[in-house]
Write a structure and sequence with these properties.
This protein has 212 residues and is of the alpha+beta class. It is built from five helices and eleven strands. The chain starts with a helix and ends with a strand.
Length: 212
């Protein structure tokens, strides 16, 4: 939670773990309907890190609020799993939790791991990038698998906690390579939240990335 609070501050409030309440309004299943303005407004009444109290390792939320660790939770789990495996073997391995992953060393013959990044137009059928890595974390944020269609536009599942709507003019896909999966996931999510400023944000962070 300390880490999430730091991300909130670093993103100027764009990254907000209390935005989980917005999932009551949005269903990112590839269908066309979007929530009514009233439904979004009702959900936003329960969003805002400033409404939460985090002190002495106790998190207190007003009634109706909830937290969502999307963007850091699964990535943290990848790194923890990698740590447990590394403590038990000297062999190279790859931990992959649904596309968020960590590679620990090259394969036999000093061969890198080859990772494909989904083509947003044909998820699971084609890739837009083939990334080779020997060590590090890799994570992707985008609209390939979770989205809604609205007025002919594809809207991704990452929401702006201020408006309650998907991030405007966001890239189709943001992939980041970093020392850990948690760092990669954090940066890909923060970049996506920047919308059209995603590339500039990542250039400023000095990491290896791919933006579509």
């Amino acid at each position: 939670i300390d880490y999430a609070a730091a991300c909130h501050q670093m993103s100027g409030g764009r990254f907000d773990i209390t935005s989980g309440a917005l999932r009551r309004a949005w269903k990112f299943d590839g269908s066309s309907p979007v929530p009514t303005a009233a439904a979004i407004h009702a959900a936003l009444e329960h969003v805002g890190w400033h409404r939460a109290r985090w002190a002495d390792h106790v998190l207190t939320l007003p009634a109706g609020m909830e937290i969502d660790f999307g963007g850091i939770g699964k990535e943290y789990a990848v790194d923890r799993a990698a740590g447990l495996i590394a403590a038990r073997t000297q062999r190279a391995f790859l931990v992959n939790f649904g596309g968020d992953l960590f590679a620990a060393g090259a394969r036999v013959g000093d061969r890198p791991w080859a990772v494909g990044v989904d083509d947003p137009t044909r998820p699971g059928e084609a890739s837009v990038y083939r990334i080779e890595i020997k060590r590090g974390g890799l994570a992707t944020s985008g609209d390939a698998r979770r989205f809604v269609l609205h007025e002919g536009k594809r809207l991704g599942h990452i929401l702006n906690p201020r408006t309650g709507w998907p991030v405007e003019d966001a890239p189709r896909s943001v992939t980041v390579l970093a020392p850990t999966c948690m760092e990669a996931g954090t940066l890909s999510t923060l970049a996506y939240l920047e919308g059209p400023g995603a590339r500039a944000f990542l250039e400023g962070e000095g990491v290896t990335f791919w933006v579509l």
